[in-house]
């Protein structure tokens, strides 16, 4: 369709009066095909999808979702509840989730718990009232009320970013505890004698607590007779500034530590930069490890040794499972362990 044709079409159809039948006439297809492209584009031929989408662009058609939802009993929305909107690492998972869901015609509604189980409960209750078709949750530990509400709703649910033997419905994630055990094993292999766990473990951050448990289990296994060392704050945000504060606390309480194992890359990055400013040689005087493999990890000097987790793929795989469920198809698996990878760089 040329620019002239588009202008002529816009003159003919006002944006408030365009119907699905109008789109069908412009696209040269049936109204049923337009409806199918809007609801399940994957089930249509690429040629039909392109013709319908071009007709929608040219007519400036706006779908009446309210009417569609009433007719189909589907809202075409998926709720994603994450701990923090500002955290880029969760944004990567949301990007993967949204990319796949959008292709299937679903929109994502985002709620955030701010690491509070009580706030998560309020968010879930509120958004359930909007009748979403499915839920995506970061974490596997929730209040009994959250578990009860979601099970009674009888809609697909995928939990992520952790591991459990008893998911609400389906699970795509990895074991935070196993990841830290592997980090401790690496520390032992590299000859570090006095590793210390350092982190901001906020009351509702179950994943950070799982990492702490992994450190304790790893020390018990790989450092027999060694008393575990921890520097844990419950009121610090996940920022580089907090990493500097935690570094100072670790140096004060455990001055002979040769390795600091941070619960997050942001904290580790802040500590590493503080070491540079204070003239502490890394890793010669003090080694540092993180968790998450944030983009900054490979840009630091020295690069940050860390645990890499499949942030984007978690969202993508969760979306694929949800779509299969929403199409009344049986997923290949109820739980999918994506694992993790220890990335060794210069800081340890």
Percent of residues in beta strands?
Answer: 5-15%
Could you please say which CATH topology of the largest domain applies here? Rossmann fold
- Indicate the overall shape: elongated
Corresponding CATH superfamily of the largest domain: Response regulator
Q: What is the domain tally?
A: 3
For the sheet with most strands, the description reads:
6 strands, parallel
Order of helices and strands: HHHHHEHEHEHEEHEHEHEHEEHEE
Largest beta sheet: strand ordering: 2-1-3-4-5-11
Q: Report the top-level CATH class of the largest domain.
A: Alpha Beta
How many strand segments?
A: 12
Count of individual helical segments: 13
Helix content range: 40-55%
Overview of the molecule:
The chain has 13 helices and 12 strands. With 348 residues, the chain is α/β, with parallel strands linked by helices. It has 3 domains: 3-63, 434 Repressor (Amino-terminal Domain) (Orthogonal Bundle), CATH 1.10.260; 74-174 and 311-338, Response regulator (Rossmann fold); 176-308, Response regulator (Rossmann fold). The strands form 3 sheets. A 6-stranded parallel beta sheet has the order 2-1-3-4-5-11. A 4-stranded parallel beta sheet has the order 7-6-8-9, with helices on both faces. Helix 2 (20-27) packs across helix 4 (46-59), helix 6 packs parallel to helix 13 and helix 7 (117-128) runs parallel beside helix 8 (144-153). The longest helix has 17 residues, at 206-222. Residues 18-72 form the HTH lacI-type domain. This is LacI family DNA-binding transcriptional regulator. GO terms for molecular function: DNA-binding transcription factor activity; transcription cis-regulatory region binding. Keywords: DNA-binding, Transcription, Transcription regulation.
